[in-house]
Amino acid sequence: MESLRVINLGVETGGKKILENVNLYVKEGQTFILFGPNGSGKSSLLSTIIGHPNYKVFQGRITFRGEDITSLPTNERVRRGIGIAFQNPPKVSGVKLIDVLRYCARVAGMSEEDAEKKIEEYAKFMGMEDMLNRAVNDGFSGGEVKRSELLQLMLLNPDFVMLDEPDSGVDLENITIVGKAIKRILERDKPQEKRKKSGIVITHTGHILDYIDADYGVVLFNGRVSCIGDPYEILEHVSKYGYEACIKKCVERRDAQ
Ligand SMILES: Nc1ncnc2c1ncn2[C@@H]1O[C@H](COP(=O)(O)OP(=O)(O)OP(=O)(O)O)[C@@H](O)[C@H]1O
Ligand SMILES: [Mg+2]
């Protein structure tokens, strides 16, 4: 079944074209890994999918389960089951993490009693019990911010999950926790035929691929999808030879078909 479709998408922000002719088709149960050099438009793509008002769609559209969501406000997209863990989320002084988690649980349709149980269970799982009464991201370390973002997603329980560099800045011990959390959020711990969740994960290092398997890798280059293929192959090729060589190989292979 169809999950997210990005059709011929063109996006601009601050008067600059960031994405052009981007096409993606993610089916239910599939996880895509999004690669690309700094500034290639990865975070902008996720921000556009969630409906960040700074990103203007000048071409194409986005559909979720067949419905055109291109003009919907962010809250409506979230209500339909799309969630995001940002690369650099803002600090929210005066708002406690636990209150955001309660709100996420409410949006997900949980009763108050269930929410308290789940918050306790998930906070323990993420090693965040001591941080629940602190203001969101206020003075959090880089790794704590990443875990806090994932904890919020665990409560929100979206069907389409977007994770922007969840492995960046996470230490060697916590990467195991982050990896397990993502595996759970994306249902990669279930057999393929039982997976309902789908999503896009951005990573530079590929560390997260040690914990979750993924169906496809996509390379964004200068705001365009330049390559789609096996994520492990792409990672290996980019690590050895760089992005331009990876794209060249991809184009040669496509032309030969
Ligand atoms: N609000 C904005 N105003 C102007 N330029 C912007 C804005 N947001 C993004 N950009 C520009 O768009 C381009 C793509 O940025 P984006 O954050 O999507 O890159 P990225 O692929 O996520 O990079 P990284 O790997 O460094 O996170 C960059 O050149 C960036 O400076
Ligand atoms: Mg980014």
- Which series of helices and strands comes N to C? EEEHEEHEEHHEHEHEEEHH
In total, how many domains does the architecture comprise?
Answer: 1
- Total helix count? 8
Biggest sheet: strand arrangement:
6-9-10-3-11-12
The top-level CATH class is Alpha Beta
Structural class of the secondary elements?
A: alpha/beta
Work out the strand percent: 25-35%
Ions and ligands: adenosine-5'-triphosphate, magnesium ion
Biggest sheet features: 6 strands, mixed
| Low-confidence spans | none
Distance between the termini: 27 Å
Would you identify the CATH H-level superfamily?
P-loop containing nucleotide triphosphate hydrolases
User: What is the helix content?
Assistant: 25-40%
CATH fold naming? Rossmann fold
> What oligomeric assembly is this protein in?
single chain
Average residue-wise pLDDT:
95
